[in-house]
Write a structure and sequence with these properties.
The longest helix has 26 residues. The chain contains 7 helices and 7 strands. It is α/β, with parallel strands linked by helices and 249 residues long. α4 links the parallel β4 and β5. It binds NADP nicotinamide-adenine-dinucleotide phosphate.
């Protein structure tokens, strides 16, 4: 079974994670698709993978819950015994300023984006050590570049995710595991809540982007594949901005 490439994409019931899961399946990976609250969304991801001729398994996962993460990794151990690619995509946060946030709201982004990535890597590590061309991909964000008061906890949790990426990119290559981050600019997904439907907002994002358009999920999946499929297996510790350059402004 070692010849079967295996990946786990956290948060693949919708949005960016869904697009990455489908793309990896098309590239021959068996994909563990995970949902947290949106089982129907996860089912749709699995159906699209099947339609594309790929193979997957739908699993419930709460990345902020140690037992949930360890149980899923135990299942991967039982079914395949190794993991080639872990994509840390899952995130949840509340967009508020410090004045408007409760302590629990502040902690939400850390529990999901930061602790979720830490837990997923911790429990995936024994499996990744046994995987060929093993990769950890962090779906980070450009939010750390110009931390905004309106998304304070998300921006600071993202900064910590980037530090974790740097630390692990130094330590994990000893086990044959590369660690890279993909940094999308604003991407039109459900993550934006009501703002996803705000055409004017997305027009403004496009007009102010040096490339005159916004990031798409296809841009992000191509960046992920570029990092994983590096023919020299040397790309490690990179922060690949998929923003059209908007993060520089
Ligand atoms: N959209 C953007 O503009 C943008 C820009 C830069 C970076 N990013 C990053 O890209 C990633 C994906 O964002 P997106 O826009 O695709 O968001 P999205 O459409 O809201 O999807 C978020 C995914 O995370 C899952 N999730 C949330 N909490 C979870 C938990 N505790 N345990 C496991 N899964 C959980 C959700 O599952 P359920 O729906 O099943 O609950 C969903 O599958 C995030 O890390 C985000 O920070 C997004």
């Amino acid at each position: 079974m070692k010849s079967q490439k295996v990946t786990l994409v956290t948060g693949s019931s919708k949005g960016i994670g869904k697009a990455i899961a489908i793309r990896l399946a098309k590239d021959g990976y068996f994909v563990y698709v995970t949902y947290y609250t949106d089982e129907a969304g996860g089912q749709k991801t699995v159906e699209e993978i099947e339609k594309a001729g790929g193979k997957s398994s739908l699993q419930k996962l709460d990345v902020s819950d140690e037992k949930s993460v360890s149980q899923l990794m135990a299942l991967v151990e039982k079914e395949f015994g190794h993991l080639n690619v872990l994509v840390n995509d899952a995130a949840r946060s509340i967009d508020k300023t410090m004045e408007d946030s409760s302590f629990d709201e502040w902690k939400l982004a850390f529990d999901n984006k930061l602790h979720g990535a830490w837990l997923s890597i911790k429990y995936a590590l024994p499996l990744l050590k046994k995987g060929e061309n093993a990769n950890v991909i962090m779906i980070s964000s450009t939010a750390d570049e110009h931390p905004s008061q309106e998304v304070l906890s998300y921006a600071i949790a993202t900064a910590a995710v980037n530090s974790l990426t740097k630390a692990l990119a130094i330590h994990l290559p000893a086990y044959g595991i590369r660690v890279n981050a993909v940094m999308p600019g604003p991407t039109r997904t459900a993550n934006w809540g009501e703002l996803e439907k705000d055409d004017q907002l997305w027009k403004n994002f496009a007009e102010t982007n040096p490339m005159k358009r916004v990031t798409t999920t296809e841009d992000i999946t191509d960046a992920v594949m570029l990092l994983i499929n590096d023919p020299h297996k040397f790309l490690n510790g990179n922060f690949l901005f998929v923003s059209g350059g908007s993060h520089l402004k």
